[in-house]
């Protein structure tokens, strides 16, 4: 079995997951959780989230096959979700948001804050485009970044301020919008051809 490591694929998958996980945009929720309960288990939450993402990368397609949905259809659906996430990020509106978690245990941080429905959909959608090994590297890179953000969320908020966080969200919103269009275009052609 040969490995197909590709820097461009790793970079693209990392940026997609970074934008969908949106840990920088979740800093206000993380800070309010830390204020309520005093401590967030950053390491444990990051590891559990990574395990969930990698597990879904491998068994997600089998789950789809079980209910009779092909990966291209799922990728098109994922493109729509990425599109709406990008619109939220760019326009600063909320189309859908889960309620703020009540405690800082693994459940609200690892799932659904980090490895939520949008993340899982994106992982399966990009699996139609990229090699699995590149997606795993992207998951690991995002997990490291998530861990660092969880560990230093107060410092990040002080340095960036609300304006800085807003700019980062908008920039990544535009990037994810472009990725959503590409994902839709490449998979809709395959769906129409079959």
UniProtKB/TrEMBL annotation:
Family: Belongs to the UPF0056 (MarC) family.
Membrane topology: Multi-pass membrane protein
Location within or outside the cell: Cell membrane
Protein name: UPF0056 membrane protein
InterPro entries linked to this entry: Multi_antbiot-R_MarC (IPR002771)
Source lineage: Bacteria, Pseudomonadati, Bacteroidota, Flavobacteriia, Flavobacteriales
Species the sequence originates in: Ulvibacterium marinum
Name of one Pfam family that matches: MarC
Keywords: Cell membrane, Membrane, Transmembrane, Transmembrane helix
GO cellular component assignments: plasma membrane
Residues that span the membrane, as ranges: 12-33, 45-68, 74-96, 103-124, 130-150, 171-192
Recorded superkingdom: Bacteria
């Amino acid at each position: 079995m040969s490995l197909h490591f590709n820097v461009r694929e790793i970079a693209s998958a990392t940026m997609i997951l970074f934008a969908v996980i949106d840990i920088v945009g979740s800093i206000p929720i993380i800070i309010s959780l830390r204020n309520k309960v005093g401590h967030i288990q950053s390491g444990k939450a990051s590891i559990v989230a990574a395990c969930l993402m990698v597990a879904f990368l491998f068994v997600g397609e089998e789950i789809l096959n079980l209910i009779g949905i092909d990966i291209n259809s799922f990728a098109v659906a994922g493109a729509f979700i990425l599109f709406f996430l990008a619109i939220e990020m760019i326009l600063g509106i909320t189309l859908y948001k889960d309620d703020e978690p009540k405690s800082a245990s693994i459940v609200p941080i690892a799932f659904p804050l980090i490895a939520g429905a949008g993340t899982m959909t994106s992982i399966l959608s990009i699996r139609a485009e990229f090699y699995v090994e590149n997606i795993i590297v992207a998951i690991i890179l995002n997990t490291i970044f998530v861990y660092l953000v969880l560990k230093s969320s107060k410092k990040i908020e002080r340095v960036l301020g609300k304006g800085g966080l807003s700019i980062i969200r908008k920039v990544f919103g535009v990037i994810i919008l472009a990725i959503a269009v590409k994902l839709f275009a490449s998979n809709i052609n395959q769906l129409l051809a079959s």
